Please model this.
Amino acid sequence: MSLRDRLFLLRLRDREEEAFAEMVLAHQDRVFGLLYRMLGNREEAEDVAQEVFLTVFRSIDQFRGDAQLSTWIYRIAANQCKNRLARLVRERPGLRADVAVEGGKGDEAAVYEPGVGPGWATGAGANRPDVRLEEQQRDALVQKAISELDEEHRLLVILRDVQGLAYQEIVEITGLEEGTVKSRLHRGRMRLKETIEAAMDAEGERKPGSKAQAKTKAKAKDGSERT
Amino acid sequence: MDHDEVQARFSDYSEGELSETDAAAVKSHLAKCDSCRKEYEGFLGALWKVSELRTQTPDAPQRFLESVQGRIRARSQGRFFSRKRVWSRFPLETVSLVTLLVLLVTYVLLVAMQPNRVQEVLPGGRISGPR
Model:
C-alpha cells in the first residue's frame, strides 16, 4: 500500500466526509455495475449499492490494508448481493425463472422479448435507431442468459468477462482458489454459450427469411422427402 | 486430446493460459474437427457478446453519493460525519500529563499567593489562630 493510500485510509478511519465522498465517487459506477448485472434490476442494484457503502463506512476500521481498497469493497458488494438474492428468492419463489431483465445504458424501456426486433446487428450503422434497438435487445438477451446462471457462476462471469477483473483480484474477492475460479468460470461460460445460442435460435426461427428458419424448413423438407 | 478434453480447455485456450504443448494440441484438434471448431466459434461469440455488456452497463444513478450520505446520517443518528472533538485528536497520555502539570502549577500558585500566617504554640499545647 502506497503512502498516499495509507493517508487516504487514515482519513477514512477519521470518518472524514470529504474522503468518504471521494471514495464513493471513485467506486460507485463499478459497484453499481456489478450489482446491476447480478440482480438485473436498477432499483435493487441502487439499494444494495447504498448498503455496500454504508457497510464500508461502518467497517473501515476492520480493513487491514492487505488488499486493495477496491477489492475489499467488491468483496462486500458480492456478499451483500448474495444476501439480497437469497432474500429475493425467499420473498418471491421462482424469481430465477422470471427474473426482471432491463436493458443497459440509456435504455429505460428496452425489455427483451423473444420474437420482437429485426435481428442482431453490430458495427456499421450503430447510431441508427433500429440498429440501436437491436443492440439493446441483444444486450437484454445476454443479460437474461447471465441471470439464468447459478449465482456463483454468474458472479465469476460478471467479474471476469463483463468487468474485466484479473484472476488474482477475483480470487481475493471470492476467497476461492484460482483453479476453482477458472473451472467454475469455464462451466459458467459454456452454460452461457448454450443459453445464448438457444435464445438466438429461438429468435431466428421467429423471423421470416432467417438462417434458423431456413434450416428448420430444410429439415422439414428433408423429412417429408424421406417419407 | 478427445473432444471433451479440447472443449474443457476452451477458456484457457482463448486466454492464452495453456502450456505450449496443450495449446498446440487444441489448435491441431480444432483444425481437423468441424464439430469442436463450431463449438469454439460459438464459445468465442458468447464471450464477445458478454464482454460487450461492459460498455452498456449503466453508471450509478445521479445523486447517488447524496443518497448514501443521507442513509448514513439517518442510520447513525449523527455519529458519523461529525466534526472530531479537539480532545480526540491528542493522545490520552499527553492530555493526562498536561492536566497534571496544570494542576501542579495551580497548586503552587495558590500556595504562593496565600498570606503568611504565624502560629504559636500556647501553653497547654494549643495552637493559636493566625494573627
